[in-house]
Amino acid sequence: MSYQVTIEPTGDVIEVEEGQTILNAALRQGVWLPFACGHGTCATCKCQLVEGDVDQGDASPFALMDMEREEGKILACCAMPESDLTIEADIDVDPDFAGYLVEDYRATVAAIETLSPTIKGLTLTLDRPMTFQAGQYINLQLPGVDGTRAFSIANAPSSRDNIELHIRQVPNGAATGYIHQQLKVGDSLQLSGPYGQFFVRKSDPKDVLFIAGGSGLSSPESMILDLLEAGDQRAITLFQGARNLSELYHRDRFEALAQQHANFTYVAALNEPEPADHWQGFTGFVHEAAAAHFDGKFSDHKAYLCGPPPMIDAAINALMQGRLFEKDIHMEKFVTAADGADERQRSALFKRI
Amino acid sequence: MSPTKLNLKDKYKLLTRDLDWEFSYEDRQEAFPYEEFEGIKITDWDKWEDPFRLTMDAYWKYQAEKEKKLYAIYDAFSQNNGHTNVTDARYVNAIKLFLTGVSPGEHAAHLGFAFTGRQMGGIGARVAAQMQSIDELRHIQTQIHAMSHYNKFFDGFDEFNHMHDRVWYLSVPKSFFEDARTAGPFEFMVAIGFSFEYVLTNLLFVPFMSGAAYNGDMATVTFGFSAQSDEARHMTLGLEIIKFLLEQHEDNVPIVQKWLDKWLWRGYRLLTLVAMMMDYMLPQKFMSWQEAWELYFEDAGGALFKDLERYGIKMPDYTETIKQEKEHLSHQAWWTFYQYTHAAAFHTWTPSSDEMDWLSEKYPNTFDKYYRPRWELAAEMEAKGERFYTTGLPQLCQTCQIPMMFTEVDDPSQVAYRESVYNDERFHFCSDPCKSIFDNEPEKYVHAWLPVHQILQGNCGGGGLDKVIEYYHLDNGAANLEFEGSPDAERWKQWKGVA
Asked: Within this chain, do residues A301 and A217 fall inside the same structural domain, yes or no?
């Protein structure tokens, strides 16, 4: 038994199990709510109940006083739904978030392309058009695989009937293994979307830079195509990182875009080029390429990072050393089932990064 | 459903942040005269992100409700003779230490936040600091009320305010807060708002509040819950100030680093009193000082500094020293108070054999080797009717004002001494960090009011020990000396029907 909790003003919807707190479910489902102590004494996570019933759990009578309970206040860290709920939390709606509805789609595999030795490009034809923001992702269901897997959409939102995904084979990964070895053109798949808070903050006029690693090129590709199609004039720089030349896919595509658009710059970085690559470009990690390109100074940019957790961490460090901070750093971390283990204890210093 | 209902952000903006105004005919620098002299560069106060959005009207409403609830519980505690339900009369000495040593610090914090709540140029920061200022005032008031019940039945509480300005060990917290309050607004915010109220707060409040809970002190526990509902705001303010300063200008980074180095050490030295309280003063113990340090500083603080590294901030070098000291700190402190308890407003005692076993278990590397023999000797002397007190006066550290009792990290049998010469005068310190704090700003510390110096100069009653005790308003023979045989102990036996 679970309940649906709608969180205003963003409209996020989460599923909360019987006996689970709203905060616990929200954080597990990637929805951030303000919180601090996590056990009902500090009241940082106080929310307004708009509709529905809750069990107030272990909320301290000082953190949530009787008069507040009467006004319908709850502590997200203690409250457990007893019906479907709508709550209002102290969070901001991102003015650039379009809030397109999440829906279920049936998709047919239209093409499977080998982008690199480890990455396949998948084109799916949808049963009806999907409206999404460049940078968002879908959840894909695969035969014989428990649950769903998230993949970022790589095409621009202007093409709504087909979606393209870049999928790296995770060693021993059930879902990516299936896609790489068994999936065939013409197969039918179930998916839902669009999801996520990774999109270009167009209302902020600052120049943008993208740092992409491996198959994390997908979202940035969609976002850059979207910006260029719209004739956006701000300076756009893409840093693409790969191990060696064979893993550096879509290079021709971005070099061509850089030729056509004066405001777009493309920088590729290989951290372990093969001798046969005869690599003349930047050798090193992609965050080092970005630091070298901008002379270590990133102020007055918006940065969008997409790729595996170590790349994201290294990129955040480089950006912050170059004095670009949380507010202007947006990211999509490609976490695999194997990444959970090394989660270190985090402080409350940062919310999103 | 009204479509015009304001969300929290807009409400906060209109009811709080909009209270600011532009200076059209007054010079802004004159209005905020302290904003620049510390070298901190603020380029844009609009980048301040409100750590919480509590409008002033809601603030008063909530705080009033908390008070009502809290005082109802105090009344019930009092009517039910709650003081007889604590684990043991020895426990009450922990809250004597709290009232004399910690509560005046709340008042000092109140004054400090009132200062920064006036002097910071950004309205969001000013409002947050003003609310914290009022909170701190509420905290000392509610603490005094919580303790006032104990004051009717135990010695050592009544003159806490008088003592705060005079008694030797109380000069430690007093000088700590005065050091912070005489700094500029940003140093104060880093010192108290961040270092103390965020990084170290769990090492001060959790030990006292858990200690109260484990020892049946419902009044103090209830105060703790009431205060904790304010602390979350204080902690988020501490976090925002540090992020804000580090993000505003790169020149702020080394200044903030210097302040962190100074204030985490100053705060840690102050926590010596907590270490001793946890390990020796609680009849029912809940955690050792070493365990608390590991949990709240090494783990939680370690994660924080890992994140701060992204700004170019480093964990202070001396944390290795603290790691070594954590197995010695509480023992050396209680030993010092044991010897000087004739001049203290609480009682001391030798740990029982069960307590010594607990200490051996918690401190396997140090207790049996260095400290158990001392306590066994003390107990032996006591049994012979020779309970000893040291009548000489200890040398104090010029910076932290704690007696020289800390040993060298690599030699627990050697007390650490450091010194610096400034303007032909020699100054003494307990440690390298205290010496370097002095060396950085010698003018700030050369005139420190060191209680031992003042006694020797005749400024504390002007005579022998009896005169000093009178000057302290210590009720000689009641509030001070050994616990066994004290009036507190005798009354407790009567209440409990023990012969």
From this structure: yes
Read off the pLDDT band of A333 (50, 70, 90). confident
> Is B4's pLDDT higher than 80?
no
What is the per-residue pLDDT across B43-101, written as a single tens digit (0 to 9) for each?
A: 999 899 888 778 888 889 889 999 999 999 999 999 999 999 999 999 999 999 999 99
How many folded domains does chain B comprise? 1
* A41/B300 CB distance under 8 A: no
What contacts 24+ positions apart, CB below 8 Å, involve B295-300? B296/B200, B296/B202, B296/B203, B296/B206, B297/B199, B297/B200, B297/B203, B297/B322, B298/B323, B299/A345, B300/A345, B300/A347, B300/B202
Residue B20 has pLDDT above 90, yes or no: no
Mean pLDDT, residues A132-141: 94
Query: What is the spatial distance between Cα A320 and Cα B437, in angstroms, rounded to a whole number?
Result: 29
Chain A touched by B65 (CB under 8 Å): yes
- Return the structure tokens found at B467: 């005169």
Lowest mean pLDDT: which of A95-104, A265-274, B133-142? A95-104
pTM for the model stands at 0.91
Q: Which residue has the higher pLDDT, B21 or A306?
A: A306
Residues of A with CB under 8 A from a CB of B: 9, 36-37, 41-44, 60-63, 65-68, 88, 90, 92, 316-317, 320-321, 323, 325-327, 344-350
pLDDT band for position B10 (cuts 50, 70, 90): confident
Domain count, chain A: 3
Asked if the structure places residue A285 within a domain, the reply is: yes
**Are residues A71 and A118 both part of a single domain?**
no
Give the whole-number percent of chain B exceeding pLDDT 90: 85
Torsion region of A105: left, alpha or beta (phi above 0 gives left; psi -120 to 50 gives alpha): beta
Q: Say what the ipTM of the complex is.
A: 0.84
In a domain? residue B289: yes
Question: Closest-CA residue in chain A for B249?
Answer: A323
Write out chain A residues lying below 8 Å of B202, CB-based.
Answer: none
- Indicate if the pLDDT at residue A74 is higher than 90: yes
pLDDT-based confidence at A339, cuts 50/70/90? Answer: low
Domain that holds residue A129: 103-195
B409 contacts chain A (CB < 8 A): no
Q: What is the pLDDT of residues B176-218, one digit of tens each?
A: 999 999 999 999 999 999 999 999 988 998 899 999 999 999 9
Residue B202 lies in a domain: yes
Return d(Cα A86, Cα A47) in angstroms, integer.
10
Q: Does B253 touch chain A (CB under 8 A)?
A: no
* Pairs across A and B, CB distance < 8 A: 84
Contacts of A76 in chain B (CB under 8 A): none
- Boundary of a domain, candidates A32, A56, A88: A88
Which of B252, B310, B314 is the mutation pick for testing A, counting most A CBs within 10 A?
B310
Chain B residues lying within 8 Å of A344, measured CB to CB: 303, 306
Checking if the pLDDT of B494 tops 80, the result is yes
CB of B5 less than 8 A from some CB of A = no
Is A42 in Cβ contact with B231 (below 8 Å)? Answer: yes
